[in-house]
């Protein structure tokens, strides 16, 4: 699947966003090694801290289906420049996507940047840090 198609999938995912509080809709499309796309949107809650970002929705959907190998993820929002994943999502991306999984950050205007899990969170706390 090419980059443009994955971005279109992220845009479709964004339409499902449940954002009555922020009104800031985000979509994510996560492509696994087998070619399946997992869609994610942000889902908010009146208890604000329960809000879940689009990226984590997509990742948790895939991982809960037993998928652990990912090729790419596209994320889209109506931002000035390419959308910037929050710190919580960077941490989750760092552990559950491969370090070289391609991450495409974009916006509705078509600006985009390509990065990787590794570049999004240098020095991440990792499972190895738990070992004595
Ligand atoms: O990369 C991002 C940044 C923010 N949000 C969500 C969280 C919240 O619902 C809203 C405003 O922060 O956007 C995402 O889903 N992904
Ligand atoms: Zn986030």
From TrEMBL:
It comes from the Bacteria. It catalyses: cytidine + H2O + H(+) = uridine + NH4(+); 2'-deoxycytidine + H2O + H(+) = 2'-deoxyuridine + NH4(+). Residues 1-128 form the CMP/dCMP-type deaminase domain. Keywords: Hydrolase, Metal-binding, Zinc. Gene3D superfamilies: Cytidine Deaminase, domain 2 (3.40.140.10). Its cofactor is Zn(2+). One of its GO terms (molecular function) is cytidine deaminase activity. It is an enzyme of class 3 (hydrolase). Transmembrane segments: none annotated. This enzyme scavenges exogenous and endogenous cytidine and 2'-deoxycytidine for UMP synthesis. PANTHER family: CYTIDINE DEAMINASE (PTHR11644:SF2). Belongs to the cytidine and deoxycytidylate deaminase family. This is Cytidine deaminase. It comes from Evansella alkalicola.
């Amino acid at each position: 699947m090419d980059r443009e198609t994955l971005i279109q999938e992220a845009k479709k995912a964004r339409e499902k966003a449940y954002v009555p509080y922020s009104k800031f809709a985000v979509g994510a499309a996560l492509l696994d090694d087998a070619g399946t796309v997992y869609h994610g949107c942000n889902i908010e809650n009146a208890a604000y801290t329960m809000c879940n970002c689009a990226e984590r929705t997509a990742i948790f959907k895939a991982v809960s289906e037993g998928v652990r190998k990912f090729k790419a993820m596209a994320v889209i929002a109506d931002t000035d420049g390419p959308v910037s994943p929050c710190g919580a999502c960077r941490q989750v991306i760092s552990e559950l996507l491969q370090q070289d999984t391609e991450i495409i950050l974009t916006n509705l205007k078509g600006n985009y940047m390509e990065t990787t899990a590794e570049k999004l969170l240098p020095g991440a706390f990792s499972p190895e840090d738990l070992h004595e």
